[in-house]
Amino acid sequence: MARFVSDCEGFARRDFLKIGSAGLLGIGLPQLLQLEAKANEARGQRRAQARSVIMVWLAGGPATIDMWDLRPNAPEGIRGEFNEINTSAAGVRISQHLPRMAEVMNKCSIVRSLAHTIPSHGPATVFMTTGNRPTPALHYPSLGSLVTRLLPAAQGVPPYVAFNELRNGSAGLAGYLGTSYNPFIVEGAGNANGRGRTAGNLRVRGITLPSGFTLEQLENRDRLLQNFERGLAETDRQDDLVDGLDTFHRQALDILRSDRTRNAFNLQQESDSVRERYGNTPFGQGVLAARRLVEAGVRFVTISTGGWDTHNQNFQNLRTRLLPNLDQTLSALIKDLDDRGQLDSTIVYCAGEFGRTPRVNNRSGRDHWARSMSVVLAGGGIRRGYAHGTTDVQGMAPNADPCTPDDVAATVFRQLGIDHLQELMTPTGRPVQLFREGNPIARLVG
Amino acid sequence: MSTRILFAAVIGVAAWSSPGVDAGVNLPGDKKLERVDFERHVMGLFGRAGCNAGSCHGSFQGKGGFRLSLFGYDPDKDYIAITREGLSRRVNASDPDGSLLLLKATGQVEHGGGVRFSKRTWQYQLLRDWISQGAPWSKGSGAVEKVILNPPEIAFNKAGEARQVQVSARFSDGSEADITPFCDFRTNDDAVAEVTNLGLVKSLRPGSTAIVVSYRGNVLPLRLMVPMEMPAGFAYPKTPEVNYVDREVFARLKLLNMAPSDLSSDAEFLRRVTIDTIGQLPTPDEVRSFLADKDPHKRQKKIDELLVHPLHAALWATKFSDITGNDTQSLEIPNNIKSKRSQQWHDWLRKRVQENMAYDEIVRGILCATSREGKAPEDWLDHVKKMDEQLLTNFDSDYANRDTLDLYWRRQQQVTIELWGERTAAAFLGVRVECAQCHKHPFDRWTQAEYRAYANIFGAVSVGSSPEASRLIAAEVKQRKEKTAKKNQILPVREVFLNANARSLRHPDTNGVLTPKALGGPEISFQRGKDMREELFKWMRGPDNPFFARAFVNRVWGHYLGVGIVHPVDDFSLGNPPSNDKLLDALAKDFLEHNFDIRHIERVILNSRTYQLSSKTNETNKLDKNNYAHAYIRPMMAEAVVDVLNCALGTVERWGPEVKPGSKAVEVGASQLQNPQLTYAFRIFGRPPRTSACDCERAMEPALPQKLFLMTDQGLLDKFKVVDGRLEKLIKSTKSDDEALDELFLATLSRLPSARDRQAFADYRKMVTDRRTAFNDTVWALINTREFILNH
User: Fold this and answer.
1) What class, spelled out in words, does domain A12-444 have in CATH?
2) CATH number of the structural domain spanning residue B211
3) How do residues A279-306 score in pLDDT, each as one tens digit?
4) A225, A246, A250, A422: best mutation site toward chain B, by most B Cβ within 10 Å?
5) Which residues of chain A have pLDDT under 70?
6) In this complex, do B707 and A245 lie within 8 Å of one another by their Cβ atoms?
7) Residues B576, B566: contact at Cβ < 8 Å?
8) CB A228 to CB B615 under 8 A?
9) CA torsion, points B555, B556, B559, B563, in degrees to nearest 10?
10) Of the partner residues B434, B575, B703, the one whose CB lies closest to the CB of residue A137
11) C-alpha to C-alpha distance for B289 and B133, rounded to whole angstroms
């Protein structure tokens, strides 16, 4: 009972519906590339640059004023305790506690003029991870769910994987797209604070057989099932539901038989030096696994690390714990992707829900601040060695090239070859543009 | 005024400068338009070409600096935008072909929306003609009195035919004109019929659907039917009718040349009706005794038995919880109490379904709820203390004994009156009005003014302290604060009451006062102390209300048949007509005549042959999707999936501390639980968070994670091994392999194994010699069949 509502392109929607559903069903890589090419053609766009996204989520709201956009000329009480250092990108200076990021800054862009107006964790997380300001009337899908919906998936791997549920599953989900587009959740990844079991126990819930359940047993059981399965076999093949279930059945077996996902978590296949470089933390090893998942064909990976809500002892926490970890892991990811020739097809997007108050509070902490914040992007055609926009001298608000979470989302999607103006249909038949207010940031590309 | 004078002058110039212009424009279909009218034709063209859609110039920011009113609701603004803004370059009477409007639309100048039409088209000629006439506008010329479709509906003879629809409009000046090329045509089911943008309808496949015709905000459905082609010598069978449901359904099927499927087998019926009514599977013994029963009325008796089953009320309380928005997260703090508040809500509903309270009375208790229900503040406070005490200590409470469901209104965060309007309209009228918050509904009649006037009915409803109770509440809150160390553990004391002053939204255009008004119903004036909701309720339950009874019988029908007569069930709109309006009318009439007796309507539906048809299709009806020629195979509700798995495996769900031990999933009130295992299962099988007023929140489509869950979930596989579970008991029993196989088939598929099934198992057993492994694998295989996880 899909209703047809014409849009600017008029013709495009149906093509997309078909491609979108293919995304759910999983197809071989050659067909996948063909489909992508066709989709791009249909949209009259150039070929997508990026194929995948790794979103590194800094839960709690990182003090980006002490990381990516220091304000050394601000008065005492604002400028903080850290100094700036030069980076490999001419004219781009970042915190002294991110020296390895400084080395790879010539591969990254910093967006310094990002701002929104929601200084509350839940809705701000939703805003940043959906590219849409939250409203009570409609649950917007996360960027990963949109990608699942709009791009075809590779066979044998889940399209969208999340290492931790964002805010206990209140963000990062499929919203109006429906449960089919929710992420597959990695188990054993520890909690959002990065504490927990090591990467050796990582597995995606539901896509690997539990221990003691062998592949041989699965094949046996499935054969038995196929011999039983006569109940609805005579039901005519027109039934979408029965057909759909059969397809999912085959796809599930594909995934379980395939060792692509399991292999992605087998970090033993990486050299010790590589594992070492990512950092011997659940977060570091998780990010390495994320890289391997993308290699296996996963479209969108979200990995989150917590502890950034630094109302107390902001500087001490950043200096001793948060920044060294992030510095090591994020720089390792970017460098590794580049060395392997994958950075041009993978967007790394590092962000949190908001920034923190320029003014330092009386507990040496910084509080929630959404009116100015920075995010870091790299790869997938994102400009290398560039800082976009500036904030005022006190870091309170952007004073040049202001942009919003919607704009960044639209930019990422543009690089994925997805028309950001495209509309999707809610279950009530209401056409909704991907990002209500977003426009790609032209200078962030190329 | 100055605009008109200005343009009068321009017209003069234009007429002078191009004297040889041939008057009139050729339209498609060899028609000629003598005079191009701005409202009737130019705006019609914009709507049809999609220029004023939300993604294009109709968006609130416009596009490329050019903004039109969304779907053309405002000719005044659009006229100014086209003729005056953009440095007046959009229309140029002295050089029509150089008008930006035409240069953009034809792609001669870069246009974000692409090429809409070429220079050689009638659209171009029409706009050009209008511009060269000086872009005249006579205000109000396009006001539509009535849109007329010819034919008003189409009965095709077979697939592959074409019919032209002609649309004409009667305008308020009394004139009538053909407007076909200025309409937008959409099909509601492109598998059954397609339509060109000039109204040529083609039948593609047997079935029924509607073409939705819209002309500048006026929406009309054109219903159509495509019958099966009768094979030579095919005699349409005579199928016995049990009641009026069958009469209406079979009459429709006859027109479509579709023969109803056979009656379902007893096993098929028993499984279906048990899942549908109580969300469980019949036990092996129940299946055996039902199959053995020789009573010709055994189905009727089974239905009666199930309709009074306690879990039947629980299942409907869950459905009503969806409909009324029992969203755990939105309820009053503290957080660890919220799931119990949700349970109270569920209990309140369940008690009423169990007692078979009349539907209108249930709705009244929700719609017109207050906390005090007329009690003195002191008495009410005693009641609150008792309720809160129970919240802290028990799973059981006396909340269900209240007359009204004040929890519906008592949310932690204040809810806007707009949202109350949307929620009540969707829940009790089956109407979605949210589009009209920002613009006229594109596929329905509702305007922004009607939306706001409806919301104003809820203007006096407040949550907090009424003047009469405020002193008492303050004292109680103070006491609670003193008693409890942890601030976040204090239960707030708040009441739903009617404020002496009503909040009120104003008219979107005039900013004038908007008298509260029911949707398409009477005005309800506000007086201090009067509950406007009561007036609304009176209108709802009245015999002439077009929505109230229909919306509910449609929901019941949709639940039992899998597809609503209006589908989706909460989308009653002009653009979404019922698939069988006689059937819907008959059900609604019966419901009214029986004083909103829910169980009566359920009995009528469940006893009908239509409900009891087999899901197995025949050659004539295999394409049917919405005329009920056969039972539709459908997924189960998420709660039923959890329960049915436990039924099959003979296990009890372990809920943790949030839910009363031993509860079935259909008995759980909370929309959100902490238990990650259950949260996961509920989520992937589509239990809704109930945050929006839409039945669509409940996902009812299969998804890959569901399949993977059934194959690999550790928690589920662990249930196989539960000591007093079905499988372990069976393995340890003295039952032979054959007997054990029977038992497992009955427990999962509610039928005995066929010869083929027995052979498959026998072959397997030869390979897998260990009895435990063999049966373990068999259970896995059975719950992974489509037959198990689908309702059919």
Assistant:
1) alpha beta
2) 2.60.40.1080
3) 989 899 999 999 999 999 999 999 999 9
4) A225
5) 1-48, 136-137, 168-169, 188-201, 229-239, 428-429
6) yes
7) yes
8) no
9) -60
10) B434
11) 84
